[in-house]
Amino acid sequence: MKPPAFLSLLVLMLQGAVSLPEEERGSREGQLGGEGDSNTALRLGDRVLANLSHYDEPVDSEDQLPKVKGTSLASSTGMSSAQSTRAPGTALSSPTVARPTVLGLPAPPISHGLPTCLVCVCLGSSVYCDDIDLESIPPLPQTTAYLYARFNRISRIRAGDFRGLTKLKRIDLSSNVISSIEDNALCLLPALKGLILPENQLAALPALPAGIEVLDVRRNRLQSSGIQPEAFRALEKLQFLYLADNLLDSIPRPLPLSLRSLHLQNNLIETMQRDTFCDPEEHKHTRRRLEDIRLDGNPINLSLFASAYFCLPRLPVGRFT
Predict the structure, then answer these.
(1) Phi/psi-derived region of residue 113, left when phi > 0, alpha when psi is between -120 and 50, beta in every other case
(2) How confident is the model at residue 183, as a pLDDT?
(3) What are the boundaries of the region Disordered (predicted)?
């Protein structure tokens, strides 16, 4: 390469190096000028915002309304979808109640013209006629051994009500309004062991079968004159005699040796005989079975009859002062 050409090239390179700072200085000035403009704009914006702060910000009324969850009316009221779609004014259909059945047959209305086992409930040898407004003893199957006709309106027991019922063992007529029992109504029942008649209106006792073991006539209107003399002597199997809450003024006697419990509380008894419980001539004899005698609620003073208890295993319950 020739020397003059080399020198001219070197001069050109030096000129470019000198001119570069001037261009950069110009670009820097342009950048600084832009930043100054933006700072000026920011200062102006601050003044504008400061001026706008003197005005209240408008409030959207919808922002103040409470937000409600989107639950359906049916779920809030506990109604099912099927119920909520029911037309207004349409009555709900009432549930159908099945009528009770007896022995697989629908139970008809109570009527005395119907067979007993359609009016009452017959289970084997037991007949249940409780609380069905009976006014008399219904005809019973010949195989009846247990009759329950409590809480009715039966007023009397006739001689033919139990005719032919040779297997009848227990009669429970509690809480009726029975005021009379014909003499032949019960004494011809050879298998009868229990006669339950509390809460009735009996003033007298009928003749009883010899095999009876339990007689319950509490809460009646029974009077001493309504019990036949020696009415219990022949009842050699009688164990429980309940005569409480009546109008008795004396203790019925003689009492069978089989007796285990005698309840006479809340009557009008004022006195007793020496031989009511014990035989005065047999001081060695004891009545070991008769352990439960109740005379409380009577006006009698039991301490006045000390010699009447020597054969008893326990003293009667009652007033001793």
Answers:
(1) alpha
(2) 87
(3) 21-40, 56-95
Whose CA is closest to 309, among 250, 290, 232, 240? 290
Residues 137-148: what's their mean pLDDT? 96
148 bridge partner residues: 128, 172
Q: Which two tokens stand for residue 107?
A: 């139970």
What is d(CA 205, CA 147) in angstroms, rounded to the nearest whole number? Answer: 20
**Percent of the chain residues past pLDDT 90, beyond the cut:** 60
Beta bridge partners of 180: 156
CA distance 238 to 231: 12
How many Å apart are CA 138 and CA 160, to the nearest integer?
11
Q: Distances in Å between the alpha carbon of 119 and those of 116, 146, 157, 160, 211? A: 5, 16, 19, 20, 30
Residues 209 and 187: their CA atoms lie apart, in Å, by 4
Q: What is residue 200's three-state secondary structure?
A: coil
**Measured between alpha carbons, how far is residue 7 from residues 3, 11, 18, 68 in Å?**
6, 6, 17, 89
Compute the radius of gyration of the chain from its Cα atoms: 55
At 137, give phi and psi (nearest 5°).
-70, 125
Please, what's the b/e burial string for 12-24 (b: 16 or more CB within 10 A of its CB; e: otherwise)? eeeeeeeeeeeee
Give the model's confidence band at 120: pLDDT under 50 very low, under 70 low, under 90 confident, else very high.
Answer: very high
Q: pLDDT of 171-218, one tens digit each?
A: 999 999 999 999 899 999 999 999 999 999 999 999 999 999 999 999
Return the amino acid letter for 68. V
Coil/strand/helix, residue 299? coil
3-class SS letters over 128-185: ECCCCCCCCCCCCCCCCCEEECCCCCCCEECCCCCCCCCCCCEEECCCCCCCEECHHH
What pLDDT was estimated at residue 7? 60
